[in-house]
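May I ask for a sample protein chain and its fold as tokens?
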Amino acid sequence: MKFKGLLPAQKSFALCEDKFFAIVGGFRSGKTRAIVPRYCNLSAIRDGKVKLLIISPTYRLMMDSVVPIFQRFFEHNGVDYKFEKTDMRITVLDMFQGEIIFRSGDTPERIIAFECTDVVIDEFDVIPRYRQDELWQKALSRMSGADNSTMGITTTPEGFKKTYELFEEQKIGSLFRADTRDNYYLPKDYIQTLLDQYDPKLQEQYIKGYFVNVNQMQAYYAFDREKHVIEYKPQTNQVLVGIDFNVDPLCAVIGEKIKDELIIFDELYLKNSNTFRLVEILSERYDNITAFPDMTGRARKTSAAMSDIQILQKANIRINGINNPRVKDRVQAVNNFLSKGRLKIDKKCVHLIKDLERVSLDKYGELDKSDQNLTHISDACGYMVYRLFPIKSKPSWNIRGY
């Protein structure tokens, strides 16, 4: 079957004759959109008797992304179809006849009691590793609807997870790599946006589509004592404070923003303390304070009368924040800033420097919390960095084709 306007990796994915195959690519490289021409090709091959099962990581992603892609394609091309939301199924009535069954990876118990001819699992490595094996087996068990059934994977690489295991180690089928830079449908400034947001290691992952192992390594791998540690005297009276509310230790980092740089020039590492004591010290040393706290402090109470955030507000400390960012995004923001030389730390901030050098990730890519003395002060720094310079990894855009 011939297609117009497809990117090279999309075409390879759509026409692949292997039983198992995958397209792995960066953000907005066209991975999910490759599922539509895949379905159309299967419809032609199976003479309209295709039943394609599509599994998305979550119900929301399925309804926000995958289902609308098919609906827009059919409507644009005048294809008669019927969408049954209760059963999460599209029945195509002409041209590209067949059925598309949608299921969510967060409800694997619903992947039962039907058969399909083919399967695509979208954004497979976004699914937690412990659930991937179950979903893979669930999908395999449905593939009884035709001879020569197939299963495809689309995903952004998220470390060395199931996709890497299947296609790089076990080599069960073809792997097609989609580089975001090859997608000529993107706005001209999109690639630069990603380059600005990510350090070189994550550019390999989220732009070029390569598997990058970030598990069991230094969390703040971009930190280099020789590049980032300086001697510094504050230049303004605009004091910025990142805070991690923890009883032992309660941590804060104090800095100022100079143009597009953040300089941390002081720290507080208080053992067996509380927010009242933190406010007392800050008020003695500084005026004109804006805090970037752990926003769980809205609920946590140092006293019966006030929350930690309310204690700060009563001391006329401005609060920047509504919700906490994801830990992953917060760590990425710090690494990005470090890699671009825009985060500097005074040498007297010994606890922060120690954290940046010693905090590591566990085998699942999460912060290793086994040492109770680590992670707290770097968390405080991360709240401030992220809220001042947030990661904006997925700007919206309207594609004109696939």
About this structure: DSSP finds 13 helices and 15 strands in the chain.
